[in-house]
Amino acid sequence: MENQMQEKASKAKAASVLLANVSTASKDSALEAMAAALEKNKQIIFDANQKDLDAAKVMIDKGELSTALYDRLKLSDAKFKDMVSGIRDVAHLEDLVGKTLSTLVLDDGLTLYQISCPIGVIGVIFEARPDVVPQVMSLCLKSGNATIFKGGSEAKNSNRALFDVLVEAMKTVADIPADAFQLAESREDVAEMLKMDQYIDLLIPRGSNDFVKYIQDNTRISVLGHTSGICHAYVAESADLETAYSVCLDSKIQYPAACNAIETLLVNEKIAEKFLPKMSEIYRENGVELRFDDASYKIAEKAGAIHSDLKKATDTDWDAEYNDLILSIKIVGSVDEAIEHINKHGSHHTDVILSTDQKEIDKFAGLVDSSSVMINASSRFADGFRYGKGAEVGISTNKIHSRGPVGMEGLMIYKYILSGSGHLVKDYVGDGAKPYRHEKTQEKYCRLQ
Q1: Which residue stretches of the chain have pLDDT < 50?
Q2: Contact at 8 Å (CB) between 351 and 325?
């Protein structure tokens, strides 16, 4: 098993150099072929997904799989349509490979170019999300990055079907090195991947908090990702109530298993008695279980809520990612208190403010330490496709290299190219040394395609 994994990683590494130099036209042709192949093979893919769903139902009955993971595993018509359109959207994105980021003239005839280039080999390890395969493969192909996929065993049939269809389509374009994309399938492959820093340049884990934390703690390879999505909505005194009702509802129920769904609702004390009773009722009508702090509990009681229907939040609720129709509610005295709570208990993922006070909005947007801040808009917008990135390889709460929904630009790094004509360092040191000009210009580095 170790030799198989090493062979796959070695092939991906060798092919990554070739992929980094494929023309934009060839990559876009391959992406269109991949999108068309998905459409042509939809039934094959759905049949494979159904095998996984049937097995997942048995696991749910045994308590071995959550309904949230089952929802992520299921390929609906809408998800399939998004997969296809996502690939085509990536084809329309600007090709960032070889883009000149800066140009500096060191001296006459000696020019330094900073050029964007692929990271190299990306290892993507994910749970119960077969739609990750086309999303990530399309972005990695366009950005010139080789990729090793390792999906969860609960999605093995779906992952294999999608991978095979996409790679076979890719092979129809002569310039594309199909070996750049590899699929690992055994449980043991994960442990092997974590050791392969000589082949893999970046790991992107997508799954539960414990899963991502395990990856981070057991590898020397750089890891891009987030361990949890503890997101908040803060309803300020100046909030437009109708906007607040709809945004807070959408942020929770549109897809409660998503990492950008809110888990805690913070409400300013000056508007709480006016806002909370109706908001609570709207949530209950949509099947959301509410957990109140002491102050909001009293408001709910006063509003005539059935006592047996009321639940009090505990200290652990403020740090909980439910991934379900559960929401904790807390009354705060000011925007400063809301910011303090979010920065203490949040996961730096996505947080929302409902307000019409621009000064307050600016304070929240500036001081909340999260990768995305939403102003009078649903937290569910924090997504690579919705951000115009075509798709995303994941959402990062890191502060180094890339942050937020990570699209193609997050898969790029850069290198320097110095162009001279026999220039020597000795001419620029010691007595009579020549001075450097260090002049910035708009000149672009050009290479023949």
Answers
A1: none
A2: no
